[in-house]
Amino acid sequence: MSQHFPKTPGWLDWYQGPSKPRFQLPPGSVDAHCHVFGPAKRFPYAPERKYTPCDASKEQLFALRDHLGFERNVIVQATCHGADNGALVDACVSSAGRARGVATVKRDVSDQELQALHTAGIRGVRFNFVKRLVDFTPREELIEIAHRVAKLNWHIVVYFEAVDLPELWDFFTGLPTALVIDHMGRPDVSQSVDGKEFELLVRFMREHPNVWSKVTCPERLSVSGKPALDGEQDAYRDVVPFARRLVETFPDRVLWGTDWPHPNLKNHMPDDGLLVDFIPRIAATPELQRKLLVDNPMRLYWGE
Ligand code: 0GY
Description:
By secondary structure, the protein is α/β, with parallel strands linked by helices. It has helices spanning 58-68, 86-93, 111-120, 139-150, 165-173, 196-207, 218-221, 240-249, 272-276, 279-282, 286-302; strands at residues 30-34, 72-76, 99-103, 122-128, 155-159, 179-181, 211-214, 254-255. It contains eleven helices and eight strands. Strands 1-2-3-4-5-6-7-8 form an eight-stranded parallel β-sheet, sandwiched between helices.
């Protein structure tokens, strides 16, 4: 039976016809945070989802990869698919080894299912603490999952708002794997880069060498910066000091990704080509760029 999934009102579709980046990515670059949505006809969205996106297929993702000049993708399970990793797994196994994945699992996942996910290319699970995106999961369930995936040498990706870090700190430090923070822990970039809030994230990474961060989503975090549209040269300037600080302080523990197809953006949809042109503003030297785009994601996702 075919099902209909009307998009959430006001949903912005991803940018059609992205520009060719001026910044030439180093050979072997990885887009280490992106998603696939559906297509809903084949991979229906989860009943418990908090939004209904437009479809964004693996073919469209791989076309974007080639257009921008990336070699590989790390595809992250989005909340609209719940713990049904079907679309993600299908994308990974269709990628000829050029995509790895981060899944969402529940505590009742079997060892056999985890092994099958590993074979498909999954190397991590995502714990989401952003309240508008997910219902609450008890911590003991997450700890149980963490210990099971640790045996596969996977890591845990965590998505949370900066104000929630103090409350999550002890839980995070008790996790037995590498920990990857989405979108720099969503700092309020209208505050100072040396302010209390971002200092806490920096301290968290300094004190815990197993913690990494994605320096992603300027389009999501920017408050006053102009969007990366229509050739704008100085887009998202308020995010630059935050990303730059992490790249320069922890050059071996940062990752970059497009976040295509950019779920839940309310005001504008970025041109992904111009997002790539943002990279040299946060990673200023060829060495920092190579670590951010090649060495770090390869070590975490393709190092066997
Ligand atoms: C992102 C950001 C968001 C959504 C999700 O899984 C998701 O639904 O991650 C968001 O709404 O901030 O990483 O794509």
